[in-house]
Amino acid sequence: MAYKKLLISIHNESVKKKNYSKKLTKDILNNIEILSNKCFNQKGVFTVLVTIIKGRF
C-alpha cells in the first residue's frame, strides 16, 4: 500500500475539514491515534511524519 499517498490524502482532506474516518479501518485509526500520541514524546516519529508531508511540496 502507498502509505505516503494515503497520508497525503488524509492531510489534504483534514485541511479541508472533510471527515476522512469513513475511508479508514478501525485498525488504521487506532494506529494514527498511537502515532499522534507518540509525536509529543518521540521526536523521530514527528520528524518522519513532517518529512513525508514536506516531500509532497
Which features characterize this protein?
globular; single chain; mainly alpha; 57 residues
Give a written overview of the molecule.
The protein has a domain at 26-57. It contains 3 helices and no strands. The protein has 57 residues and is mainly alpha-helical. The chain starts with a helix and ends with a helix.
The main β sheet shows up as: none
Q: Could you report the average pLDDT, rounded to the nearest whole number? A: 76
Strand content: under 5%
Oligomer: single chain
Distinct helical segment count: 3
Q: Number of DSSP strands?
A: 0
Question: What is the percent of helical residues?
Answer: 55-70%
Give the uncertain stretches in residue-range form: none
Main structural class: mainly alpha
- Give the ordered list of helices and strands: HHH
Alpha-carbon Rg, integer: 12 Å
Shape: globular
Distance between the termini: 21 Å
How is the topology of this model organized?
Layout lengths: L2 H13 L10 H14 L3 H12 L3
Structure summarized in a few sentences:
This protein has 57 residues and is mainly alpha-helical.
